[in-house]
Amino acid sequence: LLVACIAATATDARALSLRSSKAEAFLGDVRPGGTVDFAQVAGGPLTATNSGDESVTLEASVSAPPSRRLKDGFDPLPDPAWVRLSGSGVVLAPGESAVVGLAVSVPADRRLDGGQYQFDCLLRGRTAKEGALTLRTAVTLAVSDGEPAEAPRAAEDSSFLLSPVSARMEGVPTGRSVAV
User: Fold this and answer.
1) What are 103's strand-pairing partners?
2) Residue 102: strand pairing partners
């Protein structure tokens, strides 16, 4: 009798379920004034998949992680405006996935050189019945001058010529200038 009463009062229950392609990602070194695209350095784009049985509206945002979740040696990203996101407002039917575009542009400020920063990319899914679920991807990056970009090769008909291309000298004392 108890089971019959419970079954008679039960309502239709649905589950909101989202998955993202990455829980954390390191974007590598970014030069001051440079831009890094998540999809190009993190092994593919950030995606969100609706694995539930209701349609979900996706919202993407950026936030500073609380200090207890900062990785050792990393500081919160100084300005969330460095991050460009796309993919908000997309409606995902059950089983559908969407790509969330994420790019970080570091200002051309040499004082940022050597900084290591972390931010959270939040993917919030909500249903028409006001159910909500938020996924967090911890994103880290380092600001470094690193190696300069490779200079384009001069055209063969240019007037600049360096010859020989390589040379070797023996018997030159270390730290001294000598006539070649």
Assistant:
1) 37, 84
2) 85
pLDDT in tens, 49-74: 988 888 999 999 999 999 999 999 99
Burial class (CB in 10 A: 0-12, 13-18, 19+), 99: middle
Q: Are 46 and 121 in contact (CB under 8 A)?
A: yes
Dmax of the chain from CA atoms? 105
Classified as helix, coil or strand, 68 is helix
Q: What is the pTM of this model?
A: 0.70
Q: What's the whole-number mean pLDDT along residues 117-136?
A: 89
Rounded to a whole number of angstroms, the distance between the first and last alpha carbons of the chain is 104
Residues 90, 58 contacting (CB under 8 angstroms): yes
Q: In whole angstroms, how large is the CA radius of gyration of the chain?
A: 26
